[in-house]
Write a sequence for this structure.
């Protein structure tokens, strides 16, 4: 029997997740996420599985906050199962779970990168008003960087990943194989 199959038998709850998420992390995924939580059994652990190429990081953070609140207000155990691809906003969602509650299926890849922004700043009108417009955009960028840093720190908490190394790799889309994620302590196990 291979090691992955032996590992899977140690975690029978992962065979039938309560919440299945797939596709783009967006408002539609959040609606499905909320409904599946309501449909989940009222007691016991809740397993969340996700396969995604990414999407809206704020939606991922909102889902993660819901997971945190479930744990804090009900005392229920919440488990993360990443399947096939856990990219971008998927990794943001994963960061809401402690590393000892995270699992990946074999062959799964994580992808971590810096937050992206596409914006055009148009300057038109009184000069003093342009200073306010530029400061507002700068504050938006600064807050996005602070949120990104919080997420990066949550993702690597309890692992052997050095924060400065993560910052060096994130601008170039850091892909992490499931076995590497296990060796670095980003997840508890690969099944």
């Amino acid at each position: 029997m291979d090691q992955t199959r032996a590992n899977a038998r140690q975690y029978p709850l992962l065979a039938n997740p309560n919440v299945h998420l797939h596709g783009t992390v967006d408002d539609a995924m959040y609606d499905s996420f909320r409904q599946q939580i309501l449909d989940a059994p009222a007691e016991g652990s809740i397993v969340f599985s996700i396969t995604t190429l990414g999407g809206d990081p704020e939606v991922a953070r909102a889902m993660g906050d819901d997971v945190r609140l479930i744990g804090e207000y009900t005392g229920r155990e919440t488990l993360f199962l990443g399947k096939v691809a856990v990219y971008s906003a998927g990794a943001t969602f994963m960061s809401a779970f402690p590393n000892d509650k995270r699992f990946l299926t074999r062959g799964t890849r994580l992808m971590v990168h810096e937050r992206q922004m596409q914006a055009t700043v148009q300057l038109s009108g009184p000069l003093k008003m342009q200073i306010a417009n530029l400061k507002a955009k700068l504050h938006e960028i600064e807050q996005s960087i602070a949120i990104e840093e919080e997420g990066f720190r949550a993702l690597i908490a309890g692992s052997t990943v050095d924060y400065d190394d993560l910052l060096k790799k994130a601008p170039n889309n850091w892909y992490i194989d499931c076995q590497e994620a296990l060796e670095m302590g980003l997840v508890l196990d690969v099944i």
